[in-house]
Amino acid sequence: SQLVESGGGLAQPGGSLRLSCAVSEFTLDYYAIGWFRQAPGKEREGISCISSRGGRTNYADSVKGRFTISRDNAKNTVYLQMNSLKPEDTAVYYCAARSTWYCSLSSSEYTYWGQGTQVTVSS
Fold this sequence. Notes:
seven-stranded mixed sheet; about 0% helix; globular
């Protein structure tokens, strides 16, 4: 796969996790990256994205103030720091790439997808 997510797992409410999205086969410099999640029985939700050089970010209201997206183009990796986790954050988390400098929270605008990593928030 060209995008591989890692860092998911079980966290307690109020806890933190950091997800990573490692990209291979192409250089991140020219790609905007988005993070999405999908809970059972729900549609895929765009939660955060970052422009190709990292200068612009966007967050869904559901995660604003709790999640932080960042990227290290030298390592070809994008991160999602998730703090103050809630049970409703439980979902499979995906990263995706699009070959534009600006990012979007719309899943239809992304070309490349990872296979996802499970995040479960439970006591």
